[in-house]
Amino acid sequence: MQIGPYQLSNQLIVAPMAGVTDQAFRNLCLRYGAALAVSEMLSSNPEVWDSDKSRQRMMHSGEEGVRSVQIAGADPELMANAARFNVEQGAHIIDINMGCPAKKVNKKFAGSALMQSPDLVKEILQAVVSAVDVPVTLKIRTGWEPEHRNGVEIAKIAEQSGIVSLAVHGRTRQCMYKGFAEYDTIKAIKQNVSIPVVANGDIDTPEKAKFVLDYTGADALMIGRGAQGRPWIFKEILHYLETGKKLAPIKADEQRAVMLEHLNKLYDLYGEYKGVRFARKHVGWYLNHEEQRQFRADFNRLETAAQQHSLVECYFDELV
Questions:
Q1: 79-124 pLDDT per residue, tens
Q2: Helices 151-161 and 184-192, packing angle to 10 deg
Q3: Where are the alpha helices (DSSP H) in 98-145?
Q4: SS3 249
Q5: CA dihedral 228, 264, 36, 192 (to 10 degrees)
Q6: Are 198 and 158 in contact (CB under 8 A)?
């Protein structure tokens, strides 16, 4: 799949997820085969750019691969300025968020709320595309609510406005993350535009990945929650798409090494206090089975990096 001048090595992209797809997680997913990892959403409001959270999300030193940075907002001028600023900070691709269903984002008429106003969508897209010399991509949902799925209309506006690639989550804003993603709208979008279309939503197994590609005709897949606690899913899907066979489950020693590396990267990125707290949710995803409930409870009570590291080591020593 081609995004502007960038030829991706395969059809798998890491979805931007606030509080999840930081540099530590993105690099893990890239190492396991993802062709592109989109950064966490950044506000177009310059008043928040000096916060610790924004500075960390804007940091690209040591970043592997093509750097795609997602921005969100509802003001065309602010969005254009944010695009310029992030290109200056090292972004290779600017991605526009019109898919986030979070209430705090939508109440500012940003994220998926924008799909209610095709005219404003057009203004924002044209402003951002005109502001930068790098490729601009867009992520949307299928519509605002099930009764008003206007994904095809928005996709046509995107293509006409110079967007080079479009990712579509197979739910409306009203659906949030409930129920099941539907792929008929993504299929219809692919049939109505010539730019690459990326399918997103409920892709959590190699078999599901192949089904969604075949059913929608999409050019690529974007994987979000399916990769939480499982960055190796990209390797599993690639192997299945190439051979039609499933890889053997990841071995305990490899999972231990990945988890410990991930924790260490979180401590380095956020400092020990915040890193320990971010580590809790990631470990909860890595070890999310019912029989691991007690381990998660014990882990969540720990207050230092050394304690967390030691408990993970002990867990896998006993497992092996």
A1: 999 999 999 988 999 999 999 888 888 777 788 899 999 999 999 9
A2: 30
A3: 103-106, 118-131
A4: coil
A5: 30
A6: no
Q: Cα angle at 38 between 83 and 60, to 5 degrees?
A: 70
Q: Identity (one letter) of the amino acid at 63?
A: E
What the block records as the tokens of 152 is 């095809």
Burial class (CB in 10 A: 0-12, 13-18, 19+), 62: exposed
Nearest to 16 by CA among 39, 34, 42, 32: 39
Residues 68, 37 contacting (CB under 8 angstroms): yes
What the block records as the tokens of 258 is 């990945």
Under 8 Å between Cβ of 164 and 136: yes
Report pLDDT digits (tens) over 13-28: 999 998 899 999 999 9
Active site residues: 100
Q: What angle do CA 28, 33, 34 make, to 5 degrees?
A: 80
- Full-model pTM: 0.94
